[in-house]
């Protein structure tokens, strides 16, 4: 499989290049970063592109890949319903092409989201804390947004009532961001990579689900699974769990 990497000089993109080079069934044919010409992907004959760039540029990258029939495996964050809708529209005009958008490629983070969904109906309250390195552009993290959205959906399905919160006076931001009714708190500290806690509370008890990526190596098995799977999944797929038998 001929693979191109967008964001190849970045923290994750660089690691993806090394992992693709080490994979027996893949060939790294293009390494593209800011300022490079996207046409390089076409002239190199890339079949699948992996994108770890920046929320501001990822849509242009994907629209280019889709229009050239190149499958894409996307780790870059910043996706909302409007962006996913634009991808579906672009893919409708290129029906053989597949795009995977995965807010988190680490197996443990995907399981943490799954466990949070399982637990949500049993607890009165739930809040999310995401902790990342200080070079991160977006807040809350894509993983926290996705977790909040999945948990909110699980609570709606279970008919859960509003979460108790007597706060009547506060400093702006003190209660975190509101993602579909779920409070999400973000920390940015040197020394961190990517971490998240989902804390659920009920009468007399709490349940804390915590995941830690201590090294960006944690994302690589998931990225390679995405690369190997995407050509047989045309259209838009959101979440790597769809390729893990957990969808
Ligand atoms: N889904 C997941 O599992 C994960 C997702 N991420 C997400 O991936 C993204 C990248 O993260 P990270 O590697 O830490 O960030 P980095 O800033 O380290 O890397 C991004 C790279 O993309 C380059 N870039 C910028 N614009 C373009 C462009 N138009 N074309 C090609 N390359 C470009 C940047 O260049 P320059 O610095 O010169 O601008 C940089 O080299 C973020 O959105 C992050 O949240 C991160 C980890 C895991
Ligand atoms: O920027 C990062 O580093 C990460 N970004 C993703 C996110 O926003 O959820 C995935 C992981 O948390 C690392």
Automatic annotation (TrEMBL):
Gene responsible for this protein: dapB
Keywords: Amino-acid biosynthesis, Cytoplasm, Diaminopimelate biosynthesis, Lysine biosynthesis, NAD, NADP, Oxidoreductase
Protein name as catalogued: 4-hydroxy-tetrahydrodipicolinate reductase
GO molecular function per UniProt: 4-hydroxy-tetrahydrodipicolinate reductase
Principal cellular location given in the protein's record: cytoplasm
Naturally occurring in which organism (per UniProt): Nocardioides jiangsuensis
Domain of life according to the entry: Bacteria
Record-listed E.C. numbers: 1.17.1.8
Domain Dihydrodipicolinate reductase C-terminal: 108-243
Domain Dihydrodipicolinate reductase N-terminal positions: 1-105
Pfam families assigned: DapB_C, DapB_N
Record: residues binding NAD(+): 7-12, 75-77, 102-105
Cellular compartment(s): Cytoplasm
């Amino acid at each position: 499989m001929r693979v191109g990497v967008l964001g190849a000089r970045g923290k994750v993109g660089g690691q993806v290049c090394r992992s693709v080079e080490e994979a027996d069934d893949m060939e790294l044919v293009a390494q593209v970063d800011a300022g490079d010409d996207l046409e390089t992907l076409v002239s190199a004959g890339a079949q699948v592109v992996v994108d770890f760039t920046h929320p501001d540029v990822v849509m242009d990258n994907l629209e280019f890949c889709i229009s050239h029939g190149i499958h894409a495996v996307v780790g870059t964050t910043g996706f909302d319903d409007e962006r996913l809708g634009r991808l579906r529209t672009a893919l409708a005009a290129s029906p053989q092409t597949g795009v995977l958008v995965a807010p988190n490629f680490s197996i443990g983070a995907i399981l943490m989201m799954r466990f949070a969904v399982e637990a949500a109906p049993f607890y009165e309250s739930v809040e999310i804390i995401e902790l990342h390195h200080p070079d991160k552009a977006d807040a809350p993290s894509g993983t926290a947004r996705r977790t909040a959205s999945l948990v909110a959906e699980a609570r709606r399905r279970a008919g859960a009532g509003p979460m108790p919160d007597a706060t009547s006076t506060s400093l702006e931001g003190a209660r975190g961001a509101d993602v579909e009714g779920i409070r999400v708190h973000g920390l940015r500290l040197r020394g961190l990579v990517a971490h998240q806690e989902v804390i659920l509370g009920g009468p007399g008890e709490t349940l804390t689900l915590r995941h830690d990526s201590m090294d960006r190596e944690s994302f690589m098995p998931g990225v390679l699974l995405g690369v190997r799977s995407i050509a047989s999944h045309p259209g838009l797929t959101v979440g790597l769990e769809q390729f893990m038998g957990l969808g």
